[in-house]
Design brief:
This is Phosphoglycerate/bisphosphoglycerate mutase family protein isoform 1. Pfam families: DUF868 (PF05910). It comes from Hibiscus syriacus (Rose of Sharon). The chain contains four helices and 20 strands. It has about 290 residues and is mainly beta. The chain folds into two domains: about 120 residues, no CATH class; about 110 residues, Lipocalin (Beta Barrel), CATH 2.40.128. The protein has a ten-stranded mixed sheet. A four-stranded antiparallel sheet has the order 6-7-10-11, covered by helices on one side. The chain has a four-stranded antiparallel sheet with strand order 13-14-15-16, with no helix packed on it. The chain is globular.
């Protein structure tokens, strides 16, 4: 008798190869307005800390804010638009949840694409109780080696959630790494409409060069989910495009990619693979897509 994983994998899409350089569509993707990343930090004292970085682009310009744990108010906020805020490099010390926080940043030479998140030429470093709690940017490691002591302990850092807010047409493009040891994957979400000769809108999602879902009659199948394999992980892909059709005032849709927890995975793993892995980190990617009406 075949094992459960073999039976289940026949109905799931397996994505594990490096992405080819391939253009899915000539249509211009929607623009990111905000990107929020949540990091799980475990200090050497086993104290658990959560750090949230939010990059935003609005009428006031581009900005960066940092929240700690469940505090809704940012402890640090920086407007990266030079016309309003010229301190693009600096240091700030704050306190949060009985911990001493030090923030180092340099965005003076940061380069951006179309979104609010810089792609290179920058760093953001967060120290928590004299430990390196977060390093973001291609210049972070160089800055640590140059100005900070190399003997400073580095906490265990894991990206557990990423949220993206987009607006524009119905084509959304991004990247995601579902496993800390895996590779970044290209993700493309597209809704094809009647203006392309289709009788009913169709939702399609690609990861790299593979179609992972193809939803016909989207007006009636506006909510759903599909399980896929990415780098050997079970990933639940969920979509909700109800407001695109039935709430034009909001005109927003939600797409989520979520790796399964250890408990959920046991439903599909063989008994010999049911070993507790304390180092396993769950990850979710949430895309909130606003369509121009």
């Amino acid at each position: 008798m075949r094992d459960i994983v073999s039976c289940f994998s026949e109905n799931a899409v397996n994505v594990s190869q490096p992405p080819p350089r391939h253009s899915f569509s000539s249509q211009v993707p929607s623009v990111q307005n905000a990107v929020a990343a949540i990091y799980k930090v475990i200090l050497s004292t086993q104290k658990l800390f959560f750090i949230k970085l939010t990059w935003c682009n609005n009428h006031a310009g581009q900005s960066l804010s940092i929240n700690f744990n469940d505090d809704p108010s940012p402890c640090f906020k920086l407007n990266t638009n030079l016309r309003f805020f010229r301190k693009m490099k600096g240091y700030k010390a704050v306190e949060s949840d009985h911990s001493n926080i030090e923030i180092f940043w340099d965005l003076s030479a940061a380069k951006y694409n179309t979104g609010p998140e810089p792609v290179h030429g920058f760093y953001v470093i967060v120290m928590v109780d004299s430990e390196i709690g977060l390093m973001v940017g291609d210049m972070a490691e160089e800055e640590i080696n140059k100005k900070l002591k190399t003997t400073i302990p580095v906490a265990k850092i894991s990206l557990i959630s990423r949220q993206e807010h987009c607006s524009g047409n119905t084509l959304y493009s991004t990247k995601a790494q579902f496993n800390e040891t895996g590779i970044p994957h290209d993700i493309l979400i597209r809704c094809s409409g009647e203006h392309e000769g289709l009788k009913d809108p169709v939702l399609s999602v690609w990861i790299d060069d593979k179609t992972v879902i193809w939803v016909k009659r989207l007006r009636w199948n506006f909510r759903g989910n599909q399980t896929i394999f990415v780098d050997g992980l079970l990933v639940d892909l969920m979509w909700d495009v109800h407001d695109w059709f039935f709430n034009p005032a909001a005109s927003s849709a939600v797409f989520m990619f979520r790796t399964r927890s250890e408990l959920d995975s046991r439903l599909w793993l063989e008994e010999k693979l049911e070993q507790k892995d304390e180092d396993r980190v769950e990850f979710s990617l949430l895309i909130c897509a606003c369509k121009n009406v």
